[in-house]
Design brief:
CATH superfamily of the largest domain: Periplasmic binding protein-like II
Largest sheet: 6 strands, mixed
Strand order of the largest sheet: 2-1-3-12-4-13
Strand content: 15-25%
CATH architecture of the largest domain: 3-Layer(aba) Sandwich
Number of helices: 9
Helix content: 40-55%
Number of strands: 13
CATH topology of the largest domain: D-Maltodextrin-Binding Protein, domain 2
Shape: globular
Radius of gyration: 27 Å
Number of domains: 2
């Protein structure tokens, strides 16, 4: 009887020991999985996703997996970061971000500059802005900062003058000698309306997506000293996370500087 009890006790102890070992192993496995850090970032396709694909292996070497989610608009990726669905986004410049925060009451901040995409004027009907006729139509982005930026190009070319305001729109036009019609459209639509308008002022990311080369196809290209560098954006309070610091370091690395120079041959320039 006592022998049987001892056998049962020893067997029970062994079973408990094995269970404890298994539990310990499971806990260790869970711990290992928890250490794998995924950085979720939203971006527009060209050149942002292309640049991020080049960043991926650099982050992998630091122990981070970069998950890239593509967007084709300028609103959703900011909302997603603000609501915590994304860790960061990469598609916009600082003037746009500041205006977005103001209008949408979001708490988003810039971490680092990455590159500049000079805005360009494109046309299938004219070779120079001097060829514009009375009443011709020019399409521009309809978001406040990019519209104002596009209109600045027309001011520089002497086609329009405006009231002294921070963000220009068509209601602020003072002089329009050629009676140009300015058509405000969503930025992604602009390459698709080139057959319908006399000219369109297009952000470089959407131009590249439509196989337009800013250096070869644009009638006029924005000066490279433009303040509109594209930036990495996170929600305020997350900027000091190790994962975000790693992202900033990777996207501002010499490897990415070289990638931008070789891939885009001057149509896009690094801004760090």
């Amino acid at each position: 009887m006592i022998k049987n009890i001892l056998k049962l006790t020893v067997a029970g102890a062994l079973a408990l020991g094995l269970t404890a070992c298994n539990d310990s192993k499971e806990k260790k496995e869970v711990k290992v999985e928890a250490k794998a850090t995924v950085i979720k970032i939203g971006a527009t396709p060209v050149p942002h996703v292309e640049i991020l694909e080049a960043v991926k292996p650099l982050l992998k070497a630091k122990g981070y997996d970069l998950e890239i989610i593509e967007f084709t608009d300028y609103v959703t990726p900011n909302i997603a970061v603000n609501e915590g669905e994304l860790d960061a986004n990469f598609f916009q410049h600082l003037p746009y971000l500041e205006e977005f925060n103001k209008n949408k009451n979001t708490q988003l901040i810039k971490t680092v500059n990455v590159h500049l995409e000079p805005m360009g004027v494109y046309s299938k009907k004219i070779k120079s802005l001097s060829e514009l006729k009375d009443g011709d139509t020019i399409a521009v982005p309809n978001d406040p900062t990019n519209e104002s930026r596009a209109l600045d190009i027309l001011i520089k070319e002497g086609l329009l003058t405006f009231k002294d305001v921070n963000f220009k729109t068509i209601v602020d036009i003072v002089e329009n000698p050629k009676n140009l019609k300015i058509k405000e459209l969503d930025a992604p639509q602009l390459p698709r309306v080139l057959d319908e308008v006399d000219a369109a002022i297009i952000n470089t990311n959407y131009a590249l997506s439509a196989n337009l080369n800013p250096l070869k196809d644009a009638i006029i290209i924005e000066s490279k000293d433009s303040p509109y560098a594209n930036i990495v954006v996170v929600k305020k309070g997350n900027e000091n996370k190790d994962s975000i610091k790693a992202l900033n370091e990777a996207i501002n690395s010499e490897e990415i500087r070289t990638f931008i120079k070789e891939k885009y041959q001057g149509s896009i320039v690094e801004a760090f």
